[in-house]
Amino acid sequence: MSALRLRLASRNWNSLVIREAIAGYFFILPTLLSFLVFFLIPTISGFGMSFFEWDFFSEPEYVGAENFVELFSDKLFLRTLRNTAIFAVSATSLNVGLGMFIAIGINSIKWRWLKAFLRTSYFIPVVISTVVVALLFGFLLQESTGVVNYYFSRLGIDRIPWLTSSTWAFRSIVLIDVWKHVGFFTLIFLAGLQGIPSELYEAAVVDGAGRLVRLTRITIPLLTPSLFFALIIALIGAFQVFESMYVLTNGGPGDATRTVVMLLYREAFGSFNMGYAASMAVVLFVIILALTVSQIWIGDRWVFYR
Length: 306
Hints:
The protein is mainly α. The protein has 2 domains: 2-49; 69-302, Orthogonal Bundle (MetI-like fold), CATH 1.10.3720.10. Helix content is 76%, strand content 1%. It contains 12 helices and 2 strands, in the order H-E-E-H-H-H-H-H-H-H-H-H-H-H. It has helices spanning 2-49, 66-71, 75-107, 112-127, 130-140, 147-154, 166-194, 198-206, 211-239, 243-248, 260-269, 274-302; strands at residues 52-53, 61-62. A two-stranded antiparallel sheet has the order 1-2. A hairpin with a 7-residue loop joins strand 1 and strand 2 (61-62).
């Protein structure tokens, strides 16, 4: 009788596990389908398309590695790759560095209402559409009629060609990107600061440690996991920059602000050179993947997990 009860209990347990597994797969099905339809299948198709010459209307023609050979002899592509790399380094450094600095400053404030106000203020630009931000700054930074140059002229400062000079246009777009995204990284570091035990600071104060010592010996080391995450996210996003440059300068003046994604878009949907555009996407994917893997590998040496 006891053996029969055990078998019945085992069957009930197995059926319960199966039902829970089915329910679990049912709940993750929308995410799984989205991953397959919008990421995995397009990625595999893009890799395959990079070995073909295709104008979107005729039959694809297999050309092997010719697209990649042409790509790395294309001076425009190499220039856009350089622009993208410079933008990625500049925007990542400023977003992450300022985000950490602002988060530490906000976290040191004693008044809760002021903390909440500053958190909200810095995060508002994050939820605004990038196109809206670009249009707003395009209006503000107009050389002749822009609000910024108007007040500069009132102060006796010469009008700055924010978006029409190759030097200033690139700097302007970097600063706009920082204005748009620094609040996101500020929240990441604020979350990391909340996880640092207050007992560590209390013990450091008892031992006579000053603010600089507490910052360098407690705060920054225990923020390295958040810093590691922020660097990866910032670098991946910066290498895919498109909307702000497309709306503000369309890659100009000349090609000073043209990025790989902008060139890819022009080749794919302007010239209908789909195979060549796919090869650009593959190269960009490999670069981002290599940088991410290298950051993970190097991160094991400096990220402090307590």
